[in-house]
Amino acid sequence: MYPSHGFSKWGLMSINNKARCLLAAFVCVALLFEHAFAQVDRWEEHMTAGRAAAQQGIYAEAEKQFSAALVEAKNYGPEDIRLATTLNSLGLTYQNQGKFAEAEPLFQRSLAIVKKILGPEHPVVATILNNLALLYETQAKYAEAEPLYQRSLAIVEKALGPEHPDVARGFNNLAALYEAQGKYAEAEPLYQRSLVILEKALGSEHPEVARAFNNLAEIYRAKGDYAKAEPLYQRSLVIAEEAFGPDHPLVATILNNLALIYKAHGKIAEAELVYQRSLAIAEKALGPEHPDVAPSLNNLAAMYRDQGKYSEAESLYQRALAITEEALGSEHPSVAPVLNGLAVIYREQGNYGKADAHFKRALIVLEGALGPNHPNVAFVINDLALLRVAEGRFAEAEPLFLRALALRESAINPDDRHLATSLESYATLLRKTARLDEAERAEARAKAIRAKFE
User: Fold this and answer.
1) Residue 332 in 3-state DSSP?
2) Alpha-carbon span 62 to 68, nearest angstrom
3) pLDDT tens across 242-275, in order?
4) Residue 451 has what pLDDT?
5) Which of 91, 111, 189, 266 shows the greatest Cβ crowding within 10 Å of its Cβ?
6) Rounded distance, CA 442 to CA 6, Å?
7) Exposed e or buried b for every residue in 376-414, given b needs 16+ CB within 10 A?
8) DSSP-assigned letter for residue 330
9) Tens digits of per-residue pLDDT, 2-45?
10) Which DSSP string do the residues of 166-204 spell out, in sequence order?
């Protein structure tokens, strides 16, 4: 999913386009309880304001409102559904801001309350399990996430039946977990099963079917099977435009992914036009400062950077950085890919001091938010190592390359294109230090990996 120089499709968009959360059950229960208490009280006011702010991507305001709602909810008692609802909403808000440590205990507490009130087999329990699983997945805690997704899916299947749309969403989420680990063989049939259920339950023209086509296409794109991916994106796009019109955020997401296909095919002019359309839609639908606009800016910037259009790329990266920091904070992991993209520009321009500062800050942000062993850390380390090579600081480059390789090889599916990129990068150092046999072995291994995706 990432280009040879850092990240392109990482951040909020990569979460949102999976339609990851099973929120419907929780929202319905919450609304039932709200209507049961006819008077509009301060808790409801804060919850409504918090949801509106979260929908607009104004997470600091959402956090403020949900925190105020939590104060009010505590007055209802320690086992009230409104308390559980508030804890879940505040947990999601923390998660969206990258405040993972703060989010986890809120989900855990919400889960305990709901289990006691509604029982362990209620669909609302599945919703919170799903949210907690996504929290772990975002931090690459895949072993912790998988059983929660599986448990959530089992509850929904038992409660609602195997053909219910929420079961399809459960398969989708589990598939996305496998996709994140590079387990494409496990993910593909789950995405396919999700698609079949949704088409049967909702009809072939439903917008959720569009999302399902998009997600299945993402698997094929990740595997390099662009011939299979492109018609699925096109089908997804037709459904989304028919359902929502041409200016909906889902249309922007699909166009963004379709542009990645064009770029991979070397159709640069087509990719640029589609990226620009995706960005224009996102800005119109969400507002120019919404955090979901930043990934579109980041991807278009990456394409300009790869073409050597550094001025255009830098301007887009700077705007993406400003939006992300304003909406999510300067320590959110979504800040890192933008910093990394800027650093690559400065490295290619020979501005090594500025590149160094941006790479180091990206690394601090990632390691602080996700830990030093998260797979995404390898992108920044690899690019920082290439900076050391450009500077002629070969002794400092080698341990960085070896660390990036170790992170890649310790991944669930080590034989992927990211490992090939790290091997090719390391080979540049080996050649510059006259270790030609080692360089050829690294290049041969990278070539063998890439051959699997041809």
Assistant:
1) coil
2) 10
3) 999 999 999 999 999 999 999 988 899 999 999 9
4) 85
5) 91
6) 20
7) bbbbbbbbbbbbbbebeeeeebbebbebbbebbeebeee
8) T
9) 223 333 333 323 333 344 544 444 444 444 444 444 444 899 99
10) HHHHHHHHHHHHHHHTT-HHHHHHHHHHHHHHHHHHH-T
Could you tell me which residues come within 8 angstroms of residue 348 by beta carbon, excluding any fewer than 6 positions away? Answer: 305, 308, 310
Residue 413 confidence class, pLDDT cut points 50, 70, 90? low
SS3 for 349?
coil
In this structure, what token pair is assigned to residue 22? Answer: 């099973």
Distance of alpha carbon 58 from alpha carbon 284, whole angstroms: 16
Q: 10 Å Cβ neighbour count for 204? A: 12
Number of neighbours of residue 28 by Cβ within 10 angstroms: 12
Q: How many helices (H) and strands (E) does the chain have?
A: 22, 0
At 110, list the tokens.
């919400």
**Euclidean distance between the first and the last CA atom of the chain, given in angstroms as a whole number:** 15
Q: Alpha carbon 106 to chain centroid distance?
A: 21
What b/e sequence results for 72-92 when a residue is b if at least 16 CB atoms lie within 10 Å of its CB, and e otherwise?
A: bbeebeeebbbbbbbbbbbbb
The pLDDT assigned to 7 comes to 33
Please write the tens of the pLDDT for every residue from 59-77: 999 999 999 999 999 999 9
Could you tell me where the DSSP H helices lie in 223-309? 226-244, 249-264, 268-286, 294-306
Which residue, among 137, 128, 171, 135, has the nearest Cα to 153 in the 3D structure? Answer: 171
Helix 352-370 with 335-348: angle, nearest 10 deg = 160
Cβ-contact 234, 269 below 8 angstroms: no
Non-local (6+) Cβ contacts of 288 within 8 A are: none
**Residue position matching structure tokens 């997945």:** 137
Average pLDDT over residues 105-110: 97
**164 phi-psi bin (left φ>0, alpha ψ -120 to 50, beta other):** beta
The C-alpha atoms of residue 454 and residue 449 are separated, in whole angstroms, by: 10
Burial class (CB in 10 A: 0-12, 13-18, 19+), 227: exposed
Q: Which amino acid is at 28?
A: C
Q: What was the pLDDT predicted at 370?
A: 84
**From CA 104, how far away is CA 97, in angstroms rounded?**
13
Give the number of other CB atoms < 10 A from CB of residue 42: 12
